[in-house]
Write a structure and sequence with these properties.
This protein is α+β, with helices and mostly antiparallel strands. Helix content is about 40%, strand content about 25%. It has 9 helices and 11 strands. The strands form 3 sheets. A 5-stranded antiparallel beta sheet has the order 3-2-1-5-4, with helices on both faces. Helix 5 (about 145-160) packs across helix 9 (about 275-285). It is globular.
Length: about 290
């Protein structure tokens, strides 16, 4: 190879991961026809879906001067997630006022960086609001965002063993005397399953809902003998919360931790996703208590 060929090879763009992306759109009022972007998603050429949906609805509350809009927007996000997890290539109308708009080709170094870039460009409602007197506004972290970041970290650490501990489909279904239920179990090891929950929200009611949803997944898995042991990993809120909000969440979390331990379920929590990923890695490899 001569020097010119070597130079061109180094300068050639690296394709990385390729696929198609889409925007999730919602109409707050069908009569007006106004449409807002509430999330984006990317489907790689291998069929892997990565979603990032709106999880901070404070801008909507200011825009419409009501909490009703935020409530309905959150329901719309839940509809998008359920439909796309079931069928990643579904496009068009999901129901009245909620659509999936195909946007074409996208590529990047990894799924999460692609989605993160597109989300910041397309979902203006997702930008954190600056709070007077604070250098850095609080930024919530949804379970899906945490999951995608943890997958990247675990893939680098586990290498060939990655699929052994991180199933391609993070959901499992049970059908017992109470009916059919979908359980969120994104991590596994021999005779064990683990779930992920996010407490990285300012609203204590939302935190409580997320925590107990995570607990229900692993408890149901144990009761239905899907596994012999279970673990719950929790994302804690970062900086930017008011003192009152932090104290309220701290009390809620302490009560929840005691509740989980009474059920003999292993639980770990971290504010930083790398640290949480290391805890998941230790649990998968059988190093956790």
């Amino acid at each position: 190879m001569n020097g010119l060929e070597e130079l061109f090879e180094k300068a050639a763009p690296k394709a990385g991961i390729q696929g198609t992306w889409f925007a999730a759109r919602w109409q707050p009022d069908i009569a007006t026809g106004e449409t807002l972007n509430i999330g984006v998603g990317f489907v790689s050429s291998e069929g892997d879906l990565t979603l990032q949906l709106l999880n901070d609805f404070s801008r909507l509350e200011c825009l419409f001067d009501s909490s009703n809009a935020a409530f309905h927007a959150e329901l719309a996000c839940q509809v998008v997630e359920e439909c796309l997890r079931a069928s990643p290539y579904r496009r068009g109308s999901l129901l009245a006022g909620v659509t999936i708009d195909d946007r074409g080709f996208a590529q990047g170094s990894d799924n999460q960086s692609i989605v993160g870039r597109l989300y910041s460009e397309v979902v203006t409602l997702g930008k954190p609001r600056p709070v007077k007197g604070k250098k850095k506004p609080f930024a919530p972290v949804s379970r899906d965002i945490a999951y995608e970041s943890l997958k990247v970290h675990l893939k680098k650490s586990l290498k060939l063993d990655y699929e052994r501990y991180v199933p391609k489909n993070p959901y499992a279904e049970v059908n017992d005397s109470f009916g059919r239920e979908k359980l969120y179990l994104p991590f596994q090891r021999e005779k064990g399953v683990a779930t992920l929950a996010s407490a990285a929200y300012a609203d204590p009611y939302r935190v409580k809902s997320q925590l107990y949803e995570g607990f229900r997944s692993v408890e149901t898995a144990l009761k239905n003998k899907i596994s012999e042991d279970a673990a719950l990993f929790v994302v804690l809120p970062g900086e930017g919360l008011s003192k009152e909000a932090f104290e309220s969440l701290e009390k809620e979390f302490e009560e929840f931790y005691a509740f989980v331990r009474r059920h003999d379920i292993h639980m770990e929590s971290h504010e930083h996703l790398i640290a949480l990923g290391d805890s998941v890695l230790e649990w998968c490899q059988g190093k956790a208590a």
